[in-house]
Amino acid sequence: MPDFLIYALMAGLALALVAGPLGSFVVWRRMAYFGDTLSHSALLGIALGILLDINLTLAVTLGCVLLAVLLVALQHKQWLASDTLLGILAHSSLSLGLVVLALTDNVRVDLMAYLFGDLLAIGREDLYWMLGGLVIVMVLLTLLWRRLLSVTVHEELARVEGLPVTAIRLALMLLIAIVIAVAMKIVGVLLITSLLIIPPAAAQRHARTPEQMAMGASVLGCLAVMGGLAMSWNLDTPAGPSIVVCAALFFMLAVSVPRRA
């Protein structure tokens, strides 16, 4: 196998393994719109990274993290409903990112690569960045798993039991922010949320426990990555959208198979 295909496969599989359990919380807590908001803010991070001449992956990560912290702070004030805040932040950050890009002189940016991903263009340095970020997320997610489940199942009961609900909610949002920043290189800004939602949604139908759903989502995500790369290699289609198409096919298959009694 060519080196670039090996790098793409390793990056895609690593992302799928992390996106499975993390995406399960996105599905359980109905946070799909939050993922969209962070993915839009990723474009603002790209623009600021180019403007300030810093590493784009680092810039996107910082941008997503700052937006997650801002959202939690605004939700705590309870001035507006969460979906209203998400709509304001999503469109504002996307528009601001496009304006900043337009103001940068003598800089040519391939927006298609950032919007739809360029998995086959991942190099060794990109792979190291991604693996480092994903390992950190997986370790933290493992340590926080029980607390996250408690807050997800019954937030008020978790608060009565003494759990720091706000801090745990913020931690979940920060983990999602890091994954979205890392995944931008693979599936692009517009398709990141799909990879976080579709495999867990497919696994949810046949899972009996949260752990089964998380593991099933990771397996389906890995299969989607391998299938998408095979489709891209043989049919000359974009790698990121091909992965999402394979994930959607697995979802349709999961829906069509009757649930076990």
Automatic annotation (TrEMBL):
Write down the Gene3D superfamilies for this protein, in alphabetical order. Answer: ABC transporter involved in vitamin B12 uptake, BtuC (1.10.3470.10)
| Residues that span the membrane, as ranges | 6-28, 40-73, 85-107, 127-148, 168-192, 239-257
Per the record, its GO cellular-component terms are:
ATP-binding cassette (ABC) transporter complex
Please name one Pfam family that this protein belongs to.
ABC-3
| This protein's UniProt keywords | Cell inner membrane, Cell membrane, Ion transport, Membrane, Transmembrane, Transmembrane helix, Transport, Zinc, Zinc transport
Task: Give the membrane topology.
Answer: Multi-pass membrane protein
Against InterPro entries, the record matches this protein to: ABC_BtuC-like, ABC_TroCD
Asked if the record carries the keyword Transmembrane, the reply is: yes
Localization, UniProt: Cell inner membrane; Cell membrane
Q: Does the keyword Magnesium apply?
A: no
List, in alphabetical order, the GO biological process terms annotated in this UniProt record.
response to zinc ion; transmembrane transport; zinc ion transport
**Which NCBIfam families does the record match to this protein?**
PRK09543.1
Q: What does this protein do?
A: Involved in the high-affinity zinc uptake transport system.
Q: What family name appears in the similarity comment? A: Belongs to the ABC-3 integral membrane protein family.
The protein here is known as High-affinity zinc uptake system membrane protein ZnuB
* Native organism: Halopseudomonas laoshanensis
